[in-house]
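Ticket #4471: structure output looks truncated?

Reporter: J.K.
Steps to reproduce: submitted the chain below (174 residues) through the standard prediction queue, then opened the result file.
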Amino acid sequence: MGVAGLESERVRTQRAKVYTAHVLHRTYSDQDCSVARALEVVGERWTILILRDAFRGVHRFDDFQRSLGVARNVLHTRLLRLVDEGLLERRRYQEHPPRHEYRLTPRGEDLWPVLLALMEWGDRHRSEGQASPQAVHRNCGGTLTQRCLCSACDAQIEVDDVELRYGGTGARVA
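Returned output as attached by the reporter:
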């Protein structure tokens, strides 16, 4: 890794420390839990809403700000964090004055099922009779649903069918 790469890594590390100390007010580093580790990156309200908007096709700072109504400094901090974590990529779209847009990376796109599950949960438990946009399959118009399928037998799995194990060792967690 070159000098620029080391400096960039130092900046990302420092930003993560500042973000965690001043925004999250709690870390989960003492927990051996993938959910807790994921929350270190996306477990803050504005962050998940920025990702939602990115999936909806919002890419530019002013458009995020207009859509969310979030303070510019808060939006700036969250976008930097998402770029540093590799969920968004910052791309210049205008030279003078320099302007950038934010695009989902493959790592960010991996959160699509999470957002779909949150959307379904919100529709089911928090919609209070309000109409909500629905995610539909562009090719056929069918409504999307979040389902858990077994990779071995393709069975649809419910919560009572699950136990958590560490690394395939058979050691049961829950």
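Triage note (M.O.): checked the attachment and the full token line is present. The chain has two domains: 1-107, 111-174.
Status: closed, working as intended.
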